Amino acid sequence: MYAPRVFTSMLGALLAFAVAAYFMSGSLLTAFLQTIVCAIIIQIGYFLGVLYLARQEKQSMGVGSGAEAGLERRKRDMLVQDDLHTGATRNMPAGDS
């Protein structure tokens, strides 16, 4: 995520929320307090979203499932890379053209 875009979007949403809360309540203090609570809820949601994405990335890398699973994944990746390199040279024509 691009940080300035996140902050700009969050401030825009909070501004819209503050205006709506002011028109609904008629009190500047109530709108301000509700906007602060809304900002805290947005930050909690953002933090939980980042934690979720980090956990998904960790699981996709095989780190969370033990060292043996990670080692097996690395071995399999190395075999795939070896097959790619040997396959490329094996299919080349041998004669002069």
Q: What would you say this structure looks like, in words?
A:
This protein is mostly helical and 97 residues long. The chain has a domain at 3-64. It has three helices and no strands. The chain has helices at residues 3-25, 28-61, 67-90. The model has no long low-confidence stretch (mean pLDDT 81).
Entry summary:
The chain contains three helices and no strands. It starts with a helix and ends in a 7-residue tail after the last helix. It is mostly helical.
Question: Which strand-content bin applies to the residues?
Answer: under 5%
- C-alpha end-to-end distance: 52 Å
- Rg computed from alpha carbons, rounded to a whole number of angstroms: 27 Å
Report the order of strands and helices: HHH
- Helicity range of the residues? over 70%
Largest sheet: none
How much is the average pLDDT?
81
Shape: elongated
Task: List low-confidence stretches.
Answer: none
Structural class: mainly alpha
Q: Helical region count?
A: 3
User: How many DSSP-defined strands?
Assistant: 0
Attribute tags:
about 0% strand, 3 helices, mainly alpha, elongated, about 100 residues, single chain
List the topology elements.
Elements: H1 3-25, H2 28-61, H3 67-90
Helix pairs in contact: 1-2
